[in-house]
Write a structure and sequence with these properties.
The protein is mostly helical and about 290 residues long. The protein is built from 14 helices and no strands. The model is unreliable at about 235-240 (pLDDT under 50).
């Protein structure tokens, strides 16, 4: 079918507009990437806008990864993203599975309590007092236990578990399986798309942990990567006695800007690398449980 002139002009205008939006969106990422790999000598000489460096260098990355503060922060964030995500998935899936079984006593009360957490927020002070009374101040677990699960994720996963035929569980029970066996051998394997989707959500949240670390972590050696990065971006010229992040950029010949950009890349790349492996489950997992019929 021959398209009219107006339709072709409309498509052309859409392509141009989307191309402009894409360039505006991707250019900051490109600039961060380019500056992070720019040779320090070249950056110092130009002291300006660099679209494509003449000499590429890994000096900024080598320096960052050689500092104890940045390595500790990377390890802390890695532990939060892996260990925290695993614990959150187990707790969320177990709670959602229990709520999806009608034989659970007090099911309505538990569901009401979860819904209340979605409607009302306690603010900052009560969680801080709770973490303090539990003795978790300055502990890595203070960044995991208070956010171990999410009421919204529990409800979504419960909706998914509701769609699993009860006959599968009944047949497993007849074969001698326990409730825990049914959960781990039948329910969880069938829930891989949902687990992948929620696992990605949890991993991103744990990897980007920032505000809770500001509240609960005083020891700079236990700071997550985002908190160290924030201090680097805010103030790279703090003298002795300042933060560990500022100390990383003191007494070295590498420009602070290239170090900042390299830190941003290091903090961003891991999640970008994980997403392609979960993509086939992600799109399906997001929609699972949302529509029944």
């Amino acid at each position: 079918m021959k398209r009219s002139l107006g339709a072709r002009l409309f498509d052309t205008a859409n392509v141009i507009l989307l191309a402009i939006i894409g360039i505006i969106t991707l250019f900051p990422l490109y600039y961060v990437f380019v500056v992070s790999f720019t040779d320090p000598v070249e950056y110092i000489q130009k002291q300006g806008f660099i679209l494509f460096p003449s000499h590429w260098s890994f000096d900024s990355y080598k320096y960052l990864l050689s500092t104890s503060a940045f390595k500790n922060a990377t390890l802390v964030s890695g532990f939060l993203a892996t260990g925290g995500t695993a614990l959150s998935l187990v707790v969320t899936a177990a709670l959602a599975y229990g709520l999806s079984r009608k034989r659970l006593m007090g099911r309505r009360i538990l569901m009401l309590m979860i819904l209340i957490t979605l409607l009302f927020s306690p603010g900052i002070i009560p969680p801080y007092l709770l973490v303090r009374d539990l003795g978790l101040i300055n502990s890595i677990w203070s960044l995991i236990i208070p956010v171990l699960t999410s009421g919204w994720y529990v409800i979504l996963m419960k909706s998914f578990f509701d769609s699993i035929p009860v006959e599968l569980e009944e047949s497993a029970v007849i074969d001698g399986s326990t409730d825990i066996g049914v959960f781990f051998r039948i329910v969880l394997p069938l829930s891989l798309p949902a687990l992948a989707a929620f696992g990605l959500f949890y991993a991103v949240a744990y990897w980007n942990t920032f505000f809770s670390a500001v509240l609960y972590i005083n020891d700079q050696l236990k700071w997550p990567l985002q908190l160290v990065l924030r201090n680097m971006l805010i103030d790279s010229s703090t003298q002795a006695g300042g933060s560990a992040a500022a100390g990383m950029m003191a007494e070295q010949d590498i420009p602070a800007e290239t170090l900042k950009m390299a830190a941003v890349v290091i903090a961003t790349v891991p999640i970008l690398c994980v997403y392609p492996f979960l993509q086939k489950h992600f799109a399906k997992g997001v929609m699972l449980g949302s529509v029944k019929g």
